[in-house]
From TrEMBL, chain A:
It comes from Nocardiopsis aegyptia. InterPro entries: ABC_transporter_permease, MetI-like, MetI-like_sf. The lineage of its organism: Bacteria, Bacillati, Actinomycetota, Actinomycetes, Streptosporangiales. Signal peptide: none annotated. One of its GO terms (biological process) is transmembrane transport. Belongs to the binding-protein-dependent transport system permease family. It is found in: Cell membrane. Residues 85-298 form the ABC transmembrane type-1 domain. Gene3D superfamilies: MetI-like. Keywords: Cell membrane, Membrane, Sugar transport, Transmembrane, Transmembrane helix, Transport. Pfam families: BPD_transp_1. This is Multiple sugar transport system permease protein. It comes from the Bacteria. Its main location: membrane.
From TrEMBL, chain B:
It comes from Nocardiopsis aegyptia. The keyword ATP-binding does not apply. This is Multiple sugar transport system permease protein. It holds the Pfam family BPD_transp_1. Residues 72-265 form the ABC transmembrane type-1 domain. InterPro entries: MetI-like, MetI-like_sf.
């Protein structure tokens, strides 16, 4: 999909019979809501927030220019900022790969004809749909609260615990489990990808004596690599911005001891609790750069492990 | 029993076991909504010892002085507005990007794609300032108006992909019959676009219904609260511990429309998501 994306942007398809360009204004007319939105909701605000990131701004009085001070403070004088970066990175680094592994594993399991397939797919997908909701975050919080089901389970295994959500060592794991639990969305995309792999490849490999693991390594992974790549990029970007779950599970604080103070949660606190809009804007730009950097790295690494059928790169 | 049958049975057993783990939190929530508050947190069981139907009555009692139906209505209004906005303007934009020709099309298309990746937080504060200047903070406008400006680029992209695979001959034929771009759009493209429109509508509805961040920022007076904001009250107030039953009852009620949508359209949802790469 990502290739389709860049390809179509670079090379608009040629029209057979000229164009509809008799009235060049028509295109802009159809696009006018989007153009307005692009200017008022994206382009303008982006420039404005870049400017605000160099100011001290409390929303009520006009912003005063302070240069790089916000950025400096972030790096040198704000341990909570460091905590939020650290918590978010841990969440992304643990959550996304485990989530995708679960998605791929279950997709492989489901990738066979059965009358029950539809039901199974829907059952696995349901958590993804509800995952971001406050209602579900409340359930999650209760599951991992003191003496709750999770505690009882860990006691069953002889590990005493007094509420995962109150334990600085475990609070983040609760949120990681939540994102892992929502593997249904990438799973459905994996399933669609698996369906595209020609069965003959597997048959030929079997004839050559390849076992299941070898078939997985030599056929499934390379053939599925564009889909893996797509899921990896999208889920990473989304995981960086997770907010609802962290907010509800920690009661808006990011506790205990800031271990679940995710980046967006801290940004919200800075902007909309402390009314430090300049600082929050600077944080937003650092987030953008961070996400761009990480996706850039994933894109770069993709050259060595993503294979596109019938497309030499 | 033949080995093949046995293997099939084992497969079903394994998948069902995973399904059970996956669905446990949801079923536990449903069960908890019917348990006495004291029993809930400490109980792993899925069947209440005593059935506490009064949780639902308690859940529907006014919160912060506002009747609960009002939260439902507010959420429904915002969701309906968002759906209408996305259907209308994303399809217009998609048609222009996929079929019309104009000088800035390619740069604009690239920008549209870039906005899919853009973290919302980068535009958050200036957007807030704009709506504040317009006097729209603490109203539904900031949550609905942007949808009428095709800001959900993901759906524009989804529809562009869809329009592109429609045969060009249909447009040509309509054009030869004397249709202008506007009539081609309404008479030819829109009807064929229906599956993409339905996917967009369902996802917009569910995402808006479940959204919390924007509602948290823009809505402040209890009269304007949505369901997620009302549920959040259970986190803030100290009453929460004693009020687990009603909390779960309201959670179940708030999820009901999404679950019903899911049950009714699950085919569309899952297929639409697989083909378009949409995230849930």
């Amino acid at each position: 999909m990502t290739t389709a994306l860049t390809r179509s942007a670079a090379r608009p398809r040629r029209r057979r019979n000229g164009t509809y360009g008799d009235h060049p204004a028509t295109g802009y007319l159809f696009l006018s809501p989007w153009i307005l939105g692009a200017l008022l909701m994206f382009l303008g605000p982006m420039l404005a927030s870049l400017y605000l990131s160099f100011t001290d701004y409390d929303l009520f009085s006009s912003p005063t220019w302070i240069g790089l001070e916000n950025y400096e403070r972030m790096l040198t004088d704000d341990p909570r900022f460091g905590n939020s970066v650290w918590a978010t990175l841990k969440f992304v680094v643990f959550g996304v790969p485990i989530q995708l592994a679960a998605a791929l594993g279950v997709a492989l399991l489901l990738n066979r004809a059965s009358r029950m397939s539809g039901f199974y797919r829907s059952a696995f997908y349901a958590p993804s749909l509800l995952g971001g909701s406050v209602a579900l975050a409340l359930v999650w919080r209760s599951l991992f609260t003191a003496d709750g089901p999770a505690d009882q389970l860990s006691e069953l295994f002889g590990v005493p615990s007094r509420g995962w959500v109150n334990d600085p060592q475990l609070a983040l794991a609760v949120l990681v489990l939540l994102i892992v639990w929502q593997f249904g969305a990438p799973m459905v995309i994996f399933l669609a990808g698996l369906k595209q792999i020609p069965q003959e490849l597997y048959d030929a490999a079997s004839v050559d004596g390849a076992n299941a693991w070898q078939r997985f390594r030599a056929i499934t992974v390379p053939m599925l690599s564009p889909v893996i790549f797509f899921n990896l990029v999208l889920n990473t970007i989304n995981a960086f911005q997770v907010f609802n779950a962290a907010f509800i599970v920690s009661g808006g604080t990011g506790g205990p001891s800031d271990t679940t103070l995710f980046y967006t949660l801290y940004l919200w606190r800075k902007g909309f609790v402390e009314f430090n809009m300049g600082y929050a804007s600077a944080m937003a730009w650092v987030l953008l750069l961070g996400i761009a950097l990480v996706t850039g790295l994933i894109f770069r690494s993709a050259r060595s492990w993503v294979h596109y059928a019938g497309e030499k790169r | 029993m033949t080995p093949a049958r046995l293997r099939k049975l084992a497969w079903h057993a394994l998948v069902l076991a995973i399904v059970a783990v996956m669905l446990y939190p949801l079923v536990w929530m449903l069960a908890s909504s019917l348990k006495p508050s004291r029993e809930i947190v400490t109980s792993v069981a899925l069947i209440p010892r005593t059935w506490e139907w009064s949780n639902y009555a308690a859940a529907l009692e006014p919160r912060v002085g506002v009747p609960v139906w009002r939260f439902f209505l507010n959420t429904a209004l915002i969701s309906a507005g968002a759906v209408a906005g996305n259907i209308l303007t994303c399809s217009l934009a998609a048609y222009a990007f996929a079929r019309l020709r104009f000088r800035l099309r390619t740069p604009m298309f690239v920008f549209m794609l870039a906005t899919i990746m853009l973290p919302y937080h980068v535009v958050l504060i200036p957007q807030y300032t704009i709506f504040q200047q317009l006097g729209m903070v603490d109203s539904f406008w900031p949550l609905v108006l942007p949808k009428f400006l095709a800001t959900d680029a993901f759906f524009v992209f989804l529809m562009v992909q869809f329009v592109r695979q429609l045969p060009q001959d249909l447009d040509e034929a309509a054009r030869i019959d004397g249709c202008g771009p506007f009539r081609i759009f309404t008479l030819v493209i829109l009807p064929l676009l229906r599956p993409a429109l339905i996917t967009t509508a369902i996802f917009t509805f569910i995402w808006t219904w479940n959204d919390f961040f924007q509602q948290l920022i823009y809505l402040s007076s209890p009269d304007n609260y949505t369901l997620p904001l009302a549920l959040r009250l259970f986190v803030d107030t100290q009453e929460s511990v004693a009020n687990f039953g009603p909390m779960f009852a309201l959670s179940v009620l708030s999820m009901l429309p999404v679950l019903l949508f899911f049950a009714a359209f699950q085919r569309y949802l899952v297929d639409g998501m697989a083909t378009s790469g949409l995230k849930g």
